[in-house]
Amino acid sequence: MQFLKINNNVLIQSSLAFWRQGTAQRVLMSLTIAILFMPSTLAKSLDKYCVSRIGQKQEPRKFDSYAENNPKQLTIRTHSGLFDVSVDHSSLVLKRKGSSTRLSEFKIPPNNYSLIIESITLTKGQWLWVNGFEIDFMIAVNTSATIPTFGKPTWFPKIYSRPCSMFADFFGNCLRAQGVYSKSLGRAFVEGHRVNFFGFSEPVSFEMMEGTVKPLPKILQGARFVSDVPQLKGVLFRGVLDEALFYNGTTITTLPSPLLNQSKNNKFVSWGVENTQSEQTFILHLGYLKNPKDSLFLSELKAGPILKPIVISDEIENGWINLFKLSHNSYLWGVTRHRVVAEVRGTLQTVIKVQEPFYIGGPSGFKQLPDGRLTFAVRNLKKISSKSFVQYSIKKTSPTAQCKAILNAENPILLNGQ
């Protein structure tokens, strides 16, 4: 790289003089300059970031974000002030904020199902989405009165997670289908099977918004909800042929190749979704560890909706990947079992790697902190019974960053728990 810094002017002057020659010579000179300058560009694109060693740590006794992702209390604002709605096992309780006096209560009617309420979400029009252990519903909060009250619940139709015969239904041997709420669209979805005499498959799908239930469009009947897409104000469904379907509440779009694989009976290949903290959505298929020849792809879902392909470098192994965006940074980052990768010039390339018996993983294996930093844990496969690991962080370089090494896509850093 020092050669480039010293001789940039010479190269440019030579190229200008050479430009007047034949086409073949011009093409050759253009390729030569591109090859010489590209490594420098790649190296400099990540030199503002480094990896630092946080140190040896012990696995926490409990690693559970369930309560955080499943809130059991929320606050509503009315003309009479602030009120808290909370869950008490199978009941919803309303109190004035800061008070212990129950002003209003709704209890799930007894039936043959579990009555436990797992979480509540405030939706449009002061409706609550209530996620139960087995039964989901919406219920309105009447805020026009001085003391808010609960209205009548709206239940999803009685459908089951698997095909169910009348005989099995009579004896309570079928599980109710579970709904899922989309913050992007402000509505809930459920997919399941109707009961019939012989228990044949009869898939059906519904949506619910502000207490109104209606069947989903025909193409989404039997489709499964996959993910919210906040940036595009829509959701992704997996169709009955495994196709990716984007739904914005009115229009349904079947996402194009590279998802379609004609060699598998005209069915779509298996795919998954990764959402970053910055609300970007990626559709990916990284194959399976048992099938290294399986086709790989990674695409960002963008407005249109369209898929923007991202090249996956050949050395990245099949399997799983978690995607991230660092704060104030346009690069896409990813963590696999043996690599930390970054998107450089449209290609995911390795910037950090570990070798067997070391690997990245475990409950504290990788996470993004509120300040945008990425942390990951390196463990030793030969000491699998040990709960200890070495934790690292990717951050911006600074005099106080305590960097272990500067990132460089041309020269990946090897970490083996040092």
Supply the helix-strand structural class.
Answer: mainly beta
Strand content is 35-45%
Q: Mean pLDDT score, rounded?
A: 79
How many extended strands? 34
List the total number of helices. 4
The multimeric state of the shown protein is: single chain
Assign a percent range to the helix content: 10-25%
Report the biggest beta sheet as strand number plus sense, adding barrel if it closes. 6 strands, antiparallel
What gross morphology would you assign?
globular
Distance from N terminus to C terminus (CA atoms, Å) equals: 29 Å
Low-confidence stretches: 1-21, 23-43, 61-66, 288-293
Radius of gyration, whole Å: 27 Å
What does it look like?
- This protein has 418 residues and is mainly β.
- 12% of the residues lie in helices and 41% in strands.
- Strands 1, 29, 30, 31, 32 and 33 form a 6-stranded antiparallel sheet that branches. Strands 24, 25, 26, 27, 28 and 34 form a 6-stranded mixed sheet that branches.
- Strand 14 and strand 15 (212-215) form a beta hairpin.
- Helix 1 (2-18) packs antiparallel against helix 2 (23-45).
- It is globular and about 65 Å long.
